[in-house]
Amino acid sequence: MLLSYEKLLSLLQQNNDKELKSAIEKLLQEICSFFEGERAYLFSYSPVFDTVSNDYEWCADGISPQIEELQNVPFSAFPNWRDAHFNQKAYVIKDVPTSNDENEREALLPQEIKSLISAPFFKGQEYKGFIGIDFVKSNRHFTTSDIHYLEECARFFTIALDYF
Fold this sequence. Notes:
CATH topology: Beta-Lactamase
CATH architecture: 2-Layer Sandwich
Number of domains: 1
Structural class: alpha+beta
Order of helices and strands: HHEEEHEHEEH
């Protein structure tokens, strides 16, 4: 069953402003569990420096957090990912070890990522960042429905982060 906007919103509303981080992490847990992933995150984009930073993260038991290492990452080092997001498209890596992009492999393999899916969020036409899910235990095949669902989650975060 898909998570509804109502459930996502109720998770945020159960928390006050001081607990926003906890509420967002709970949402990431719900989304990640739906996809049967092991790590979920929200990255923000800095247009001044063309960097992305991991602002929120949830990890399954036994999965190493990456939030501390993923601050001010030059987005230009990942042109395929950047271009997909700037064109309002999700970005999928089905098999990190065989990725044709050397920068992706070098950045993602130390995090033990086998597959990932990410979707951008915008405020108007301005790119603000992305939500992503890592698959550490095994590779994942993504359906069109998976991609559309994560894109909807990204749209929800756009609205929710503006509201809260």
